[in-house]
Amino acid sequence: MKLAESDILFVDSLTGLSRLGFAHCDQLPEAFTDRGEKDTRSVYGAHARLMLGTLNHLQHAHGRTVIFVAILERVVDDFHVVTWQPQLEGAKTARELPGIVDQVVTMQWISFGDGKPQVRAFVCSSPNPWGDPAKDRSGRLEQIEEPGLGRLLAKLSPPREA
């Protein structure tokens, strides 16, 4: 199948893509000083430009749905506040990703505090009681949705004209 014929582009995983991008940027000429020493700040800068440029390019893939999958990483700050963010090389891409994409959905095991077993669900809006990353720019999703990607995409798709 040709990429031009695909309606859905599925990037599994953004975590892996960022690692490959970082390895590429680590070998660029700008990754080294004039004396041949590694310049880590330049590597991270080149990596941020590469990743954000790629994400922005894919964001404008008109007529296509682009789905990114990434590992979530638990981050604890200096004030012991726990947050979850995509596990990506360099902080800039993970920080800016929610501003680029239309939806941020976290698949998670949810407990409703009613003594019943946890259920798997998509967390689709923020703030939420679980502190999971989520964002719904469409306004079509509930705070939690069934964990079926096909059903979620159908709910996000505009109604077809008859």
Q: Work out the helicity level.
A: 25-40%
Give the helix tally: 4
Detail the poorly predicted runs. Answer: none
Mean pLDDT: 91
Number of domains: 2
What is the topology, as strand order, of the major beta sheet?
Answer: 6-7-9
Order of helices and strands: EHHEEEHEEEEEH
The secondary-structure class comes to: alpha+beta
Overall 3D form: flat
Largest sheet geometry:
3 strands, antiparallel
Q: How would you describe what is shown here?
A:
By secondary structure, the chain is α+β, with helices and mostly antiparallel strands. It has two domains: 1-87, no CATH class; 102-162, no CATH class. 31% of the residues lie in helices and 22% in strands. The protein contains four helices and nine strands, in the order E-H-H-E-E-E-H-E-E-E-E-E-H. The strands form four sheets. Strands 6-7-9 form a three-stranded antiparallel sheet, with no helix packed on it. A hairpin with a 5-residue loop joins strand 3 (72-76) and strand 4. The longest helix has 20 residues, at 40-59. The chain is flat, with a radius of gyration of 19 Å. The model has no long low-confidence stretch (mean pLDDT 91).
Output the keywords:
162 residues; 22% strand; 2 domains; two-stranded parallel sheet; alpha+beta
Structural topology:
Layout: E1 8-12, H1 14-25, H2 40-59, E2 65-69, E3 72-76, E4 82-86, H3 91-100, E5 103-104, E6 106-110, E7 119-123, E8 135-136, E9 144-145, H4 149-156
Parallel strand pairs: 1-2
Antiparallel strand pairs: 3-4, 5-8, 6-7, 7-9
Helix pairs in contact: 1-2, 2-3
